């Protein structure tokens, strides 16, 4: 049996607290998504004999993700997108509540019910990821069953760096090149720190220029939302920026600390930092890691990488950059199901510059990898 509700079922909340799900499967994400206008949350709960065995948090969103305009114009733009090009997004897929009672078939039934709901309510697409905490054998079974259900399946991956309060313990896992670039950043006196309220527009403008320079849409995680984020999910979010001694902003990212994980979201590198091969992102990630470790996080998630990038591609540069941090490499599945509609044909014909994949980051680092 599958239950669908706008609010988290009362018997689910304590189970989620005890099992420490990913942020994108949590009530905090549902509140943030609703407050930001990213989409209205929906909870799909699979039950057996009345007991919950798995839950899927999805948001009614748009296939044209990305707040390209300043707030509040960005929210008006996104609301229009959600009406014309609606989608149902399940960012990190189902969360298993009772592993001993939940099978791959139960997870697939949950996803198929969510896809049917999306189609019946006018969505053009249902998409998401499988949580990489699922056992590999379960993921393989789910992949096989989803393919029979006409889902498009692909693989994505991430690197997770194990943190420790003693910095030297973390440093030893970094590559020689990463440690060298961190020393260079200190020598150049690059400063990585959380942004101040007066720097919101500076950060936002640099983010937009950086995304456009690499043919990407700016993401919706703009610093103008920080007061709202603090009100809905206090203490979870922090915007970081790296400054040159001359005052220019060189890099930025948003981190979200949830449970034992600190997640890097939407990192970017300014055109100057990319052209001059400045170690701005190196010092930014390292500063964010140390801060997260001091606050009790055990993992720093560097977000998405391609499992098999084309040689010489930007995706290969991303993977090489993140691999240098010595993190644990984990693959997971992404799924997508498009529904036939004239607006989907219109979107495919006139869609704008490449937008982000679920779980993908955009910290393109074009530096040559040194041995």
Taken in chain order, the helices and strands follow as EHHEEHEEHEHEHHEHHEEEHHEHEH
Number of helices: 13
Shape: globular
End-to-end separation: 54 Å
Whole-angstrom Rg: 20 Å
* Structural class category: alpha+beta
Mean pLDDT: 84
The low-pLDDT segments are: 66-71, 352-371
Number of strands: 13
Q: Roughly how much helix do the residues carry, as a percent range? A: 25-40%
Largest β-sheet summary:
13 strands, mixed
What percent strand? 25-35%
Structure explained in plain terms:
The chain contains 13 helices and 13 strands. Helix 4 (104-120) packs across helix 5 (136-148) and helix 7 (176-187) packs across helix 11. The radius of gyration is 20 Å and the shape is globular. Strands 1, 2, 3, 4, 5, 6, 7, 8, 9, 10, 11, 12 and 13 form a 13-stranded mixed sheet that branches. The protein has helices spanning 13-19, 27-36, 73-84, 104-120, 136-148, 167-171, 176-187, 200-213, 226-232, 271-275, 280-294, 314-323, 342-350; strands spanning 2-5, 40-48, 51-62, 86-90, 95-96, 125-129, 152-162, 191-194, 237-243, 249-258, 261-269, 299-305, 328-338. The longest helix is centred in the N-terminal third of the chain and has 17 residues, at 104-120. By secondary structure, it is of the alpha+beta class. It is 37% helix and 26% strand.
Q: What is the structure about, briefly put?
A:
This protein is of the alpha+beta class. It contains 13 helices and 13 strands. Strands 1, 2, 3, 4, 5, 6, 7, 8, 9, 10, 11, 12 and 13 form a 13-stranded mixed sheet that branches.
What are the SSEs and their pairings?
Elements: E1 2-5, H1 13-19, H2 27-36, E2 40-48, E3 51-62, H3 73-84, E4 86-90, E5 95-96, H4 104-120, E6 125-129, H5 136-148, E7 152-162, H6 167-171, H7 176-187, E8 191-194, H8 200-213, H9 226-232, E9 237-243, E10 249-258, E11 261-269, H10 271-275, H11 280-294, E12 299-305, H12 314-323, E13 328-338, H13 342-350
Parallel strand pairs: 4-6, 11-12
Antiparallel strand pairs: 1-2, 2-3, 3-4, 3-5, 6-13, 7-12, 7-13, 8-9, 9-10, 10-11
């Amino acid at each position: 049996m599958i239950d669908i509700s706008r609010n988290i079922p009362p018997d689910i909340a304590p189970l989620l607290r005890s099992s420490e799900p990913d942020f994108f499967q949590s009530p905090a994400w549902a509140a943030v998504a609703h407050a930001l206008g990213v989409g209205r949350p929906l909870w799909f709960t699979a039950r057996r004999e009345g007991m919950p065995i798995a839950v899927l948090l999805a948001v009614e969103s748009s296939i044209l993700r990305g707040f390209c305009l300043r707030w509040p114009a960005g929210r008006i733009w996104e609301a229009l997108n959600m009406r014309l090009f609606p989608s149902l997004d399940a960012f990190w897929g189902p969360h298993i509540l009772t592993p001993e009672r939940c099978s791959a078939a139960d997870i697939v039934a949950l996803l198929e019910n969510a896809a049917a709901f999306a189609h019946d309510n006018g969505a053009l697409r249902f998409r998401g990821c499988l949580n990489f905490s699922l056992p590999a054998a379960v993921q393989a079974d789910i992949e096989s069953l989803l393919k029979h259900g006409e889902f498009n399946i692909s693989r994505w991956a991430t690197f997770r760096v194990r943190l420790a309060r003693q910095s030297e313990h973390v440093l030893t896992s970094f590559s020689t090149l990463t440690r060298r670039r961190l020393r260079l950043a200190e020598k150049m006196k690059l400063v990585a720190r959380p942004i101040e309220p007066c720097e919101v527009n500076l950060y936002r403008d640099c983010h937009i220029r950086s995304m456009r320079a690499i043919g990407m849409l700016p993401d919706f995680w703009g610093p103008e939302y920080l007061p709202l984020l603090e009100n809905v999910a206090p203490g979870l979010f922090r915007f970081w920026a790296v400054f040159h001694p001359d005052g220019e902003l060189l890099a930025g990212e948003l981190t979200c600390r949830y449970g034992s994980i600190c997640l890097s979201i939407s990192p970017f590198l300014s055109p100057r930092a990319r052209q001059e091969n400045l170690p701005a992102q190196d010092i930014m990630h390292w500063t964010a890691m140390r801060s997260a470790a001091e606050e009790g996080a055990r993992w720093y998630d560097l977000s998405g990488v391609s499992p098999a990038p084309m040689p010489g591609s930007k995706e290969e540069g991303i993977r090489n950059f993140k691999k240098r941090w010595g993190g644990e490499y984990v693959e997971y599945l992404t799924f997508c199901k498009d529904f036939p509609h004239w607006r989907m044909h219109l979107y495919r014909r006139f869609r704008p510059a490449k937008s982000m994949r679920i779980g993908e980051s955009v910290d393109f680092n074009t530096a040559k990898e040194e041995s």
